[in-house]
Specification:
Length: 194
């Protein structure tokens, strides 16, 4: 008890004036700091999903990899559960080097009901496959081959199959792919409107 009384008396005897150091904010430094912060350029990782990350360049744009396949190419699966099957590429993801092949690598997805009138359902979706697991395929000669690049006489650079010499890039094929894509988009919008 005596210690408590002594402590209280010491606090009351302590008087703080407004000019004293205690309780006053520090004055801002007039001199710039001599130490310069060192910033190391590091790859920025963009937040995509919890389990998937996009590597980005310093300007925050995603790093897009060059692929040997394009939308509309016929490919053969060379490894994995679907090995030996052939199909057409419907979608390409360049940030993680994966492709979606029609009717290949089907996964089951459980969809919740969005409203009282729409029931939940179980649907099959095409999951992406890494581009290193697919190889370009020739339907005419039934052979899978690596891809090569060459320049034609008119100066146009095209892709071709190394084993068969068959040219893959042609204007007709690309127009056909664009028309099919437009038809599916129109059907999807018509289905969503009804």
């Amino acid at each position: 008890m005596a210690a408590m009384a002594a402590l209280q008396s010491s606090f009351t005897s302590l008087s703080l004036s407004p000019s004293s150091f205690l309780g006053q904010p520090f004055a801002p430094l007039l001199y710039p700091s001599l130490a310069k912060p060192t910033e190391k350029p590091c790859p920025i990782v963009m937040r995509l999903k919890r389990w998937e990350r996009k590597k980005c360049k310093p300007n925050s744009l995603p790093v897009l990899h060059k692929l040997h396949v394009k939308v509309g190419d016929t490919v053969k699966i060379i490894s994995g559960r679907e090995k030996g099957k052939t199909g057409e590429i419907s979608q390409v993801f360049r940030h993680n080097s994966t492709v979606v092949v029609k009717d290949i690598n089907l996964k089951t997805k459980h969809v919740k009901s969005r409203g009282e009138d729409e029931p939940g359902q179980i649907i099959k979706i095409e999951a992406p496959i890494h581009s290193s697991n697919v190889m370009l395929y020739s339907k005419e000669q039934n052979v899978a081959s690596r891809v090569g690049h060459k320049t034609l006489e008119n100066g146009k650079r095209v892709r071709y199959l190394i084993k068969t010499g068959e040219i893959i890039d042609s204007a007709e094929d690309w127009k056909r792919v664009v028309k099919e894509k437009e038809k599916t988009e129109a059907a999807a919008t018509a289905g969503a409107a009804s």
